[in-house]
Amino acid sequence: MTPTERLTSGPPPAQLAAQSPGAAAVSPALSNPRGAWLDWAMIPVAIEIAALGALAAYGAWHVFGRRPVDTTARLPFGLFFAPAIWLSWLLGAAIFTF
User: Crossing angle, helix 77-96 and helix 43-65, to 10 degrees?
Assistant: First the structure.
């Protein structure tokens, strides 16, 4: 059997994952990390904070670095999204705590 045949033989990966012993015990909240930390009303706030932070950092990088702006450049959104989730969590705790 060739290496290619070994890789392509057998059930598809999704079927293997569904047959694994721990697949039924996975919580939907754990598969969506935003939902585990934030209330549903704070998720758009976190996305907005992350997007504005990414645009501000990109703009400052170009202004202070005297680089030309590239409109097709990619930004690492996760780098800004993780702190935004934390800030939204703190903001939500401050606002919704009675």
Answer: 130
